[in-house]
Structure prediction request, 283 residues.
Amino acid sequence: MPTLAQKLPYTHPFAGGYPYRGSQRLPSDPDALTYLAAVAAADGAPVEVGVAVAVDDFFRGIKADGTFSALKAACLLCGARTLAGALVPLVGTAPTNVADGFVSGDYTRGGATPGLKGDGTSYLDSGRANDADPQNDCHHSAYLTQQTTFGATEALIGTAHAIGLRPAITLGINSVDDVFVRCNTEDALAIAGEGRSTGFFGVSRNSSAAFGARVNGADYTLSSASIAPSTLDSFVFARNSVGSPINITSARLAFYSIGESISDLAAFDARVTALITAIGAAV
Prediction:
């Protein structure tokens, strides 16, 4: 028979402030705890233990997969109680909400479609320059929970081609239902018919001759020689064209990451998907 203390939530002295039940597991990964403490400071209150454990599972999972060290800038755009908390980075530099374009009404922390909703004008500056990662050792990813209105070509994350600058890593969709990808390549390469997909989108390069992509649960190998990355920061919800956003999307994103190459995009997809799904169910 459970005691009254086991039935009622309370703040355990070693629970980091989480509303806690005696039978619940608590997060313990040190990087997860650091992130959760920063989110609590931004929110003014800790997240639910279910959200905290989902974050803990994610950190433990990507460390077990050998992926953690590849992430240099990543943000979980759901789970936190406030927009300020959602912009606390999992790793790396916090993104800039440029001109405070996103507001609290754009943010949904849980449910079936958690994340930050684009409006066609607002975007984030990731703070991560494309040439911060090696030409042949790089990745970008984004996780969509709600698609765009499909009015025109829209970008999820990356930079744009410009005279005098090399294009870098981009993901996006266009009005004819294709996904186009770049990974330090001159030309965009199309993945046909997947423009209305949701879930994980990722690209990763670990050689000069080809790069990998993952869209809608399928892996692709795309032959395209690499070129030198640009010095521009990657934008999220848009592409950075010499400091100005283009192809701004109205999609809802729940996660993005930037960094060095990820050898198994399918495994990373599974970790991110599990994280977003668990948070959606917890709040």
Q: What stands out?
A: The chain has five helices and 20 strands. The first strand starts at residue 10 and ends at 11.
